Amino acid sequence: MLWLAAYIGSVLAINYAFSLAPHLDLVWSCWAGLIFILRDMVQVRYGHWSLAAMLAATLLSFLLADPFVATASVTAFAVSELIDWGVFTVTRRPLRDRLWISAALSVPVDTALFFGMLGIWDPAVWAASLASKLAGVSAVWMLMRARSARPATA
């Protein structure tokens, strides 16, 4: 339940924050990396119900955030969530690999859709968004890889 609440709350919070202070788009872009990790954890925990979590976050965003930001967010998240869902559904690789593969495929699409719809073409913002999202999931991947490589203790 913690992953679910953190995911929905983060989507809502970032959309609201972006609506209040769009000039801090670089800050919000860095924060977005966390949402991708949370989304993957919800996918692992709840499977196909992760789509319901995205819907709940979307509805709340439309109620509390700028509708234009919410529309860009939901469009980008919907497409990237479907990519993520496809990776988690089709591949049978270890979880850490599915996390990274889904991010490598969905993060560029999400970034392009979101900022493109908002008319934000600043390369620094796009780079920060891509880097933070991929850095976050890469850090999780490395931790999971290191953890699985450790010998079991009795």
Description:
- The chain has 154 residues and is an all-alpha fold.
- It has one domain.
- The protein is built from six helices and no strands.
- α2 crosses α5 and α3 runs antiparallel to α4.
- The longest helix has 27 residues.
- It is globular and about 50 Å long.
- The model has no long low-confidence stretch (mean pLDDT 84).
* N/C terminus separation: 31 Å
Please indicate the count of domains: 1
Main β sheet profile = none
Form type: globular
Element pattern in H and E: HHHHHH
Q: Indicate the structural class.
A: mainly alpha
The poorly predicted ranges are none
Please indicate the percent range of residues in DSSP E strands (runs of 2 or more): under 5%
Helix content: over 70%
Got a strand count? Answer: 0
Whole-number mean pLDDT: 84
How many helices does DSSP assign?
6
Tell me the Rg in angstroms.
15 Å
Protein name: PreQ0 transporter
Transmembrane segments: 46-64, 99-118, 124-144
Keywords: Membrane, Transmembrane, Transmembrane helix
